[in-house]
Design brief:
By secondary structure, this protein is α/β, with parallel strands linked by helices. It contains 15 helices and twelve strands. The mean pLDDT is 96. Bound molecules: pyridoxal-5'-phosphate.
C-alpha cells in the first residue's frame, strides 16, 4: 500500500481527481471497484471487534464499502463538508435526512419550488408522522422569517430552483435558520460544489442527487447528504438500519464523474448563458428565466454566491397568433431534433421538457400557478453539444411558432 499521502491545502480541481483515492496492494492507478456485499476477518476476535465498533474497518456493504467511502470522501472534500453519507438515490438521501433528524410535532419551512417528489414526501409521508411543512417563495426572505415557529427544525431549499431558476440567498437563510435554532438544508443538485458551496455560506446540510451532474452522463442513480459529524452520525445510523444504500458500482461511476465535474459545469454554464442571451432577443420568446441574465430578479445574489449560472433555464413562448398556451409549447418542443424530449437533466445530452404536463403534471393548478409553472413554459437543461447546433435546434422551435427565418 502506498505510503505517499496528499499534501494539505490542495486546489479544488486537484481534490476532484485525487481526494478519497483508494490505495490497494495491486497498485491500480484508477480507483478500484469493490463489488462485494461483505468483508472477511482474520479471526473470530477480529469479527467481534469490527461489529462492536472497537476496530475500524468494513463489515457489510449496506453501510460500509471502500468504493462508496471513496465517493463520500471525494464529495466531502469538494463541498468543504466534515463528512458525507451516500444513498441509493437523491430521494433516499432527502427522506433519510428528514426521518433521521425529525420527530412528530417538528416543523419544516421549505421553498415551494423544490423537486416535485420532495413535495410528495412532505405531503404524503411527513404529514402522516406528524411533521408539518410550511411552503414559502424561495426569494422572499420576509416570508421565510414569518414562517418560523418554535418547533421549526429545518429550512429546506434548492437554488437555483426548477423550472423557474429562482435564487435563494443562502447566507441570509442560514442566518434566519440559526436565529430560530434550526438547520439550513440545501439541495445543491443544480449547481454542484463546482459552482456553489453552501457550507461556506453557512448551510448545515447539503443534499445531492448524484444521478444528475455528479454522474454527468445519465447512467446511474445515487444520492448523498453532507454536513457536520453529529447529524451525519444519525443519518448513517438510519441508513445502516433501513438500507437505501448506494451500489458500489454506482459509487465508482460517481468517483470518476467527480474528476471532470468542474470542467463540465463550466462548459454547461457557458453554453446555457450564450443560449439564454440569444433567446432573449428572439421573436416568440416572451421571457427567459436564467439567473445569469441581468434581467433576472436575483441576478446579483446569484453572482455573489455562484461561480457560474448553471445548465438549467426556462422560457415562455408565444406563437405568431399571440397564443401562449400548451399547444405553442408542444409545437416548439416537437420541432427540435437534437434536444432529447425528457424530463431528466444532468447529462452531456441537452434535454427539453414541458413542466406543466410532465414534472409538475400532478401538482394542483393553484400550486402550479404559484410556482410559476405556466402552460407556455419550456425547460431546457443544456448539455455539452456544440452551441451553434443547439441554437439552430431552438431556431427550429421558434419557426414552429410561426416566425420566419431567424
Ligand atoms: C432529481 C432530483 C432529486 C431526486 O433525485 P433522484 O436521484 O432522482 O432520487 C432531488 N432533487 C433535485 C433538485 C433533483 O433534480
Amino acid at each position: 500500500m502506498s505510503k505517499r499521502s496528499l499534501p494539505e491545502g490542495l486546489g479544488e480541481e486537484t481534490l476532484a481527481v485525487r481526494a478519497g483515492q483508494l490505495a490497494t496492494d495491486q497498485q491500480s492507478h484508477s480507483e478500484p471497484l469493490f463489488l462485494t456485499s461483505s468483508f472477511i476477518y482474520e479471526s473470530a476476535a477480529q469479527a467481534a471487534a469490527r461489529f462492536a465498533g472497537d476496530e475500524p474497518g468494513y463489515i457489510y456493504s449496506r453501510f460500509t464499502n471502500p468504493t462508496v467511502r471513496a465517493f463520500e470522501q471525494r464529495l466531502a472534500a469538494l463541498e468543504g463538508a466534515e463528512d458525507c453519507v451516500a444513498f441509493a438515490s437523491g430521494m433516499a438521501a432527502i427522506t433519510a435526512t428528514f426521518l433521521a433528524l425529525l420527530q412528530p410535532g417538528d416543523h419544516i419551512v421549505s421553498s415551494r419550488s423544490v423537486f416535485g417528489t420532495t413535495n410528495v414526501v412532505f405531503d404524503r409521508y411527513l404529514k402522516k408522522f406528524g411533521i408539518e411543512v410550511t411552503l414559502v417563495d424561495l426569494p422572499d426572505l420576509t416570508a421565510w422569517r414569518a414562517a418560523m415557529r418554535p418547533t421549526t427544525r429545518l429550512l429546506f431549499l434548492e437554488t437555483p430552483s426548477n423550472p423557474r431558476a429562482e435564487v435563494g440567498d443562502i447566507a441570509a437563510l442560514a442566518g434566519i435558520a440559526h436565529e430560530g435554532g434550526a438547520l439550513l438544508v440545501v439541495d445543491n443538485c443544480f449547481c454542484t460544489p463546482a459552482l456553489q458551496k453552501p457550507v461556506e455560506l453557512g448551510a448545515d446540510l447539503i443534499i445531492h442527487s448524484a444521478t444528475k451532474y455528479l454522474d454527468g452522463q445519465g447512467r446511474c442513480l445515487g444520492g448523498a447528504v453532507l454536513g457536520g459529524a453529529a447529524e451525519l452520525r444519525e443519518i448513517h445510523a438510519f441508513l445502516r438500519s433501513t438500507g437505501a444504500c448506494l451500489s458500489p458500482f454506482n459509487a465508482w461511476v460517481f468517483v470518476k464523474g467527480l474528476e471532470t465535474l468542474s470542467l463540465r459545469m463550466e462548459a454547461h454554464s457557458a453554453r446555457a448563458l450564450a443560449l439564454a442571451q440569444w433567446l432573449e432577443t428572439q421573436p416568440g420568446i416572451r421571457r427567459v428565466h436564467y439567473c445569469g441574465l441581468p434581467s433576472h430578479p436575483q441576478h446579483e445574489v446569484a453572482r455573489r454566491q455562484q461561480k457560474a449560472f448553471g445548465p438549467v433555464l426556462s422560457l415562455e413562448v408565444e406563437d405568431s397568433d399571440g397564443r401562449a398556451d400548451r399547444q405553442a409549447a408542444w409545437r416548439f418542443i416537437d420541432a427540435t431534433r437534437i434536444f432529447s424530449i425528457t424530463a431528466n437533466l444532468g447529462d452531456t445530452k441537452s434535454t427539453i421538457t414541458h413542466p406543466a404536463s410532465t414534472t409538475h403534471g400532478r401538482v394542483p393548478e393553484e400550486e402550479k400557478r404559484r410556482a410559476g409553472v405556466s402552460e407556455n413554459l419550456i425547460r431546457l437543461a443544456i448539455g455539452l453539444e456544440a452551441v451553434e447546433d443547439l441554437r439552430a435546434d431552438l431556431a427550429r422551435g421558434i419557426r414552429a411558432l410561426g416566425y420566419g427565418e431567424n
